[in-house]
Design goal:
39% of the residues lie in helices and 22% in strands. It contains ten helices and 14 strands. The strands form four sheets. The protein has a five-stranded mixed beta sheet. Strands 11-8-12-7-13 form a five-stranded mixed beta sheet. Strands 1-2 form a two-stranded antiparallel sheet. α2 crosses α5 and α3 packs across α4.
Length: 314
């Protein structure tokens, strides 16, 4: 083939030093870049010096304490970083072909989802994918998916536009419930406004802590100011107190489906229910989605679709 492009002997140094130079800029220093790359600081410094010599320009201003880009260095870095990122993208795509689920899978799920669903399903997934290890946090707190390094988070409710990927697993009714004993003792409220005369139990992670909203006719919403006797960060605690006949609470049907079916909790104000809430599997990105994440989310979606039960099926 003809042309300078294919004369590799003349152009093989085009990329020499590019990755190291970008690493130095990203790490803001030779020593930090050397640690990331697994080289010595002197090797990194020499490679950058050779790159400058080949290009015939100074890329970095160096002192004993500081490092800064020259004007040409800034231009070279912006272009070089794109090339390095593209090269890594190509490598990642190639390596992902035929990828199998393996490695550590970090998961966060609500306590009630673990108790009612995941505890029963997880052994099957573990037996199917023997190369996957697990760290599972069963918690009702609102975790930061990216900052805390979770691969998959299961959460209920309306989602903010966070840039994360959300796959709906099922839907769940938001029920207002009490025990038969409580209702026999204190009466059954017939309207949302009648809750004012009752002992209420609330969830501390709700965005609007002093208002319970209900659905009215059409698109009308009915906000009800509440003053709960108990506010807690555990749906299981809410349910335990309601089961004991202490008060009224609001719970997703995925949390109390068994208690509802057994008659231990009674749904009230069903004519004022809001639209069912979604239960979602949330993960950081679709780009180069790890096989372990894809397999687990697909597994959850399949199990949730089969769980049915009337209350929670998507």
């Amino acid at each position: 083939m003809e042309g300078d492009y294919f004369q590799m002997d003349n152009n093989r140094d085009l990329f020499d030093g590019m990755v190291i130079f970008c690493a130095v800029v990203d790490a803001d220093g030779f020593a930090a870049a050397a640690e990331r790359l697994g080289h010595s600081a002197s090797h990194v410094s020499k490679e950058v010096a050779r790159l400058e010599e080949r290009l015939g320009v100074r890329l970095l201003n160096r002192t004993t304490r500081t490092l800064s880009l020259t004007e040409m260095g800034q231009t070279y870095y912006e272009q070089a970083q794109r090339i390095v990122d593209d090269a890594r993208e190509i490598k990642s795509r190639i390596l992902s072909v035929g990828d199998r689920p393996m490695g550590l899978l970090r998961i966060s799920v609500p306590v009630s989802f673990a108790r009612n669903y995941l505890d029963d399903w997880l052994p099957e997934f573990m037996l199917t994918y023997g190369d996957v290890r697990f760290h599972i946090e069963a918690s009702d707190r609102m975790v930061d998916v990216v900052a805390e390094g979770f691969d998959v988070v299961v959460r209920a409710g309306r989602l903010d536009d966070t840039g994360l990927i959300a796959r709906r697993l099922m839907v769940s009714r938001l029920l207002t419930v009490a025990s038969p004993e409580y209702l026999a003792r204190y009466g059954t409220p017939e309207t949302p406004q009648a809750l004012a005369g009752h002992t209420l139990i609330d969830f501390s992670y709700r965005k609007t802590a002093t208002v319970w909203e209900y659905g009215g006719r059409g698109a009308k919403r009915i906000p009800v100011s509440v003053s709960p006797r108990l506010v807690c960060n555990s749906a299981d605690t809410e349910m335990a107190v309601a089961l004991a006949g202490v008060g009224i609470t609001r719970l997703p049907s995925m949390t109390c489906g068994r208690e509802f079916a057994a008659g231990a909790l009674v749904p009230i104000l069903t004519g004022y229910e809001e639209e069912p809430i979604g239960i979602f599997a949330i993960y950081p990105s679709r780009v180069h989605l790890a096989a372990k994440v894809r397999a687990f989310v697909d597994f959850l979606a399949d199990k949730c679709s089969r769980s049915g039960g009337g209350l929670d099926a998507a």
